[in-house]
Amino acid sequence: MPAARPDLRRFFQVLPIGLLLAFAAALPLRAQPVLNVFNWADYIDPAALERFQRESGIRVRYDVYDSLETLEGRLSAGRSGFDIVVPTSEPSFARLVRAGALRPLETARLPNLAQLDQALMARVAQVDPGNRHGVIYLWGTVGLGMRQDRIRALAPDAPLDSLALLLNPENARRLAGCGIAVMDSATDVLPSILRFLGRSPDSADAADLRAAEAALLAIRPHLRSIPGSAAIVDALASGEICLALTYSGDVIQAAGRAREAGRPFQITYAAPREGAQLWFDMLAIPADAPNPEAAHAFIDFLLRPDVMAGITNQVRYPNAVPASRPLLRPEVAEDPSIYPSAEAFSRAFLAGTPAPAAERVRARLWARFKAGR
């Protein structure tokens, strides 16, 4: 440290100690940087947050949501105050990219981009050319969570690997007593229904959408609820329901909670043999993020194989960092409901983003389904 100038040394030598302390207290202190994260609930390893704060000196302020509608609403209002958001590739991330609501990534700040699975990144490049605005955080499929014991007792001839288990009205009627739920997300349910019916998951054709609506209304009287995904996790884990159409990771989390609670039943996940909807949740930086430097540091930290392995071990969703696989617990790495087989993955589809007019039609369809009319 450079020596103090003589006149300043003399000043501090004669200044009364009380005034000296008051003078020091009045000096501006460098504030600790803060990173504001907006992510899905129960979707990170708490140890990763603690480690990032310890290593970087950046404090993390963490907020959660349980629907893409909530995320998009906060961002569309502007000045959200968030530095990191985690939108699903289709449709939310795609819409945010088109709207200019996301900041282009500074790749020089992200040396761990090299860790990403380029085949998976190529899939999301369809909506983000050059992968300029986001990287894959976690991914999964949409399918069926179930208690096979209850289902076999009530509908022994029903297929366990097909959406017919849910969408055949006779099957739904037989299973109504043990509880059926469909997650409250038109974005993630309608493409699966259309695929089951042999229609394009991206269809805006009026006849196709009427067919999807008819299929949903046919089982509506037999549903116990149409909740958010977090509520489905709780309902499956507690035994309140025996069948749910939801995200793969929600089912796996529910199975883990049931085991930890000593429940006398097993919860399993099935990707529909008709083809499961594939989705990717993206790490992205809002265009008006107050601390983009910290956001880049956080993204690069999360892409480290050991960090990402800890997250997948914790939340039971697959990640896009191949070097993390050897670091996963065997029961996670070898679970086909977490990492689908090559055959199941080949049947999976990635839904597109409907045009605004089609989106409005789907929203009205979904409102009628929820209302049961």
**CATH homologous superfamily heading of the largest domain:** Periplasmic binding protein-like II
Please summarize the sheet with the most strands: 6 strands, mixed
Number of domains: 2
Number of strands: 9
Poorly predicted tracts of residues: 1-29
Q: How would you spell out the order of helices and strands?
A: HHEHEHEHHEHHHEHHHEHEEHHHHEH
Question: Would you tell me the structural class of the helices and strands?
Answer: alpha/beta
**Class of the largest domain, according to the CATH hierarchy?**
Alpha Beta
Describe the structure in brief.
The protein is α/β, with parallel strands linked by helices and 373 residues long. The chain is 46% helix and 13% strand. The radius of gyration is 25 Å and the shape is globular.
Describe the structure.
This protein is α/β, with parallel strands linked by helices. It folds into two domains: 34-139 and 279-339, D-Maltodextrin-Binding Protein, domain 2; 141-278 and 353-371, D-Maltodextrin-Binding Protein, domain 2. Helix content is 46%, strand content 13%. The protein has helices spanning 6-14, 17-26, 46-56, 68-76, 89-98, 118-124, 148-154, 164-167, 169-175, 186-196, 206-219, 229-238, 248-260, 292-302, 305-315, 330-333, 342-347, 356-371, and strands at 34-40, 59-65, 84-85, 135-146, 180-182, 243-247, 268-270, 277-283, 349-350. Strands 4, 5, 6, 7, 8 and 9 form a six-stranded mixed β-sheet that branches. Helix 3 (46-56) links the parallel strand 1 (34-40) and strand 2 (59-65). The longest helix is centred in the last third of the chain and has 16 residues, at 356-371. The radius of gyration is 25 Å and the shape is globular.
